[in-house]
Amino acid sequence: MRKPETIERLYLDFDGFFASVEQQCDRRLRGRPVGVVPFEGTDRTAVIACSREAKAYGVKNVMPINEAKRLCPELVLVPQKPDLYRRAHNALLSEIETVIPIDTAKSIDELTCRLDEAGRSDPLTLAAKIKATIAENVGPWITCTIGFAANRQLAKIACKAGKRDGGRYGDGLTIWRPEDLPAALHAVTMEEIPGVGGNMAKRLYRAGIFTTEQLYNVQAKHMRKLWGNVTGERLWYALHGYDIQAPASSRGMFGHGRVLPPESRTIRGAREISRLLLIKAARRLRRENFYAGGLWLWLSIRDGTWMGKRHLPVVNDDQAILSALSELWDQVGKDHPRGLMIFRIGVTLYDLSPSHERQLDLLLNDDCQRRRWENASKAIDNLNTRYASTVVSLGQWRPPAGGHVGGKISYTRIPSAEDFW
């Protein structure tokens, strides 16, 4: 396994991305504390993302609105515009590509690049050029923090460490050369290391590991034992500066979730929105040439959660998938005959099969009927693609207040244009 002798990776993270895009597009928001919310007209949701001015007051992402306003009474609430953020993401990547090739867009607001010889020898000039290109060609209110290190994982940690360098938030730059480590890494809290989530941190505490330095000094095989799989050992090599590459991930599911507006928090209202979300998920399933063998419905309710699953006979057409959803909602009605308050819903198609590996259910002789429904779904998709809008759907297409069915803010997935049809 190779251990680089110099910096080879750049990791870039946009600062308060969603709020800064709003500020760039609306000059009335510039310099003011901004909180992006799911939809306007209610204080019964959370701030999804906030600007650097709001963060200075202690406001954090995914914080209840009432708590955020208590910390920052001047907070300006702005309803989300997911399609705007998608277009901003594409514009920003296009500008960065004029300076350096992008290796991977890790999320809508993070990316990583491999450094050429010039970037390795003079990262300060490279970072300044990237920042200047963004400011000149997109706008000065969208800033970024950049980290340099020997591998992607260390560059990401360096980037996160630079977010609040010098007591200010954002527009940072951190360079961790191999000779700077492990001292620079030891200054980072263990919980800030990617891969050390809340549950993993508790496990490390029980093992007597409380600091990054203690974690760094653990042996590779012990790290594997602590994590219970090879991920721990892979993290050990990453922290020690090796050029470790994560294995390629495979698609495991297609799904969408949504916080419900107050007027849709009944079984009837939630059921209709879940139907639209599932149609969006099924469209993505077909675009990427998969079939699904299962459907999962998840509800966040007043007293906890409700979850249900249904087996699917390896399908990708709307009729079969929506029929299974209807069965799940019938079960919700039986479990809660007096109704219930639903705050959030999620639908997921899982147990995926690539189209060229599809195995039909031998006990379910519905192949002829299924192919007709598949052809109907393909025809609907083709019409919607032609007009770049949902002009045809199985059942009525009435998005809820605030829209964004299947096109919400996502930190882990970069939405496509089709998500907003």
Automatic annotation (TrEMBL):
Coiled-coil ranges per UniProt: none
Entry's EC annotation: 2.7.7.7
SUPFAM superfamilies: DNA/RNA polymerases
Keywords from the UniProt entry: DNA damage, DNA repair, Magnesium, Metal-binding, Nucleotidyltransferase, Transferase
Superkingdom of this protein's organism: Bacteria
Its biological purpose: Poorly processive, error-prone DNA polymerase involved in untargeted mutagenesis. Copies undamaged DNA at stalled replication forks, which arise in vivo from mismatched or misaligned primer ends. These misaligned primers can be extended by PolIV. Exhibits no 3'-5' exonuclease (proofreading) activity. May be involved in translesional synthesis, in conjunction with the beta clamp from PolIII.
Name of this protein: DNA-directed DNA polymerase
